[in-house]
Amino acid sequence: xxxxxxxxxxxxxxxxxxxxxxxxxxRKAMRLYRLNLQVSQExxxxxxxxxxALRNAIDKHYRxxxxxxWLKDAALPGxxxxxxxxxxxxxxxxxxxxxLGHRYTHAxxxxxxxxxxxxxxxxxxxxxxxxxxLLRIFPARPRSTPAQHYDNSFVFAELEKINGIRNRIAHxxxxxxxxxxxxxxxxxxxxxxxxxxxLFNWMSIDEGALLxxxxxxxxxxxPHFF
Length: 226
Description:
Structural class: mainly alpha
Radius of gyration: 21 Å
Largest sheet: none
Strand content: under 5%
Number of helices: 12
Distance between the termini: 25 Å
């Protein structure tokens, strides 16, 4: 495809950064755009696996402690999460229950909640109201030191990073540039890839076995970006 046709479809505004990063070469700009899509696809696959693993681990943990309908129950009047300091959490749960209607099952409710929702299970209020036990799903996390606390706030912040790159990919934003610059760089993608693998390890999940045949990040990045 000619660059002019590609630009007409993708827009000058979207491609301008790629063109600048490749010194004005339209051929290289198109190639970089496609490579960004490849890396994004690979990264999204890994994050999707992590998201499912995370929500299932949270659900398994709280079903043991709070019962098989813990999420729905927590948002009912008088429920553990139905308090002002838990913000929109009970609203989101109740809305999902309403949308499911007669099709409601606990499993379907769990599946309807997005990554951001599960991240907020580690926010101060949600974490406290549900019993301050959720860090147990990360049995292999590093031990806290006076200089670094690997507590719920730390996990919340790490999950925010993964949520951020997930949303960038979902909204078709590039992940192959230096922050705020039109400079080709994969540090952002590689850092978040490493973080996701670390969190798998904290959960005592063998990410190599889980992602076998799915994880091609290094194979895409190394031959093409360096």
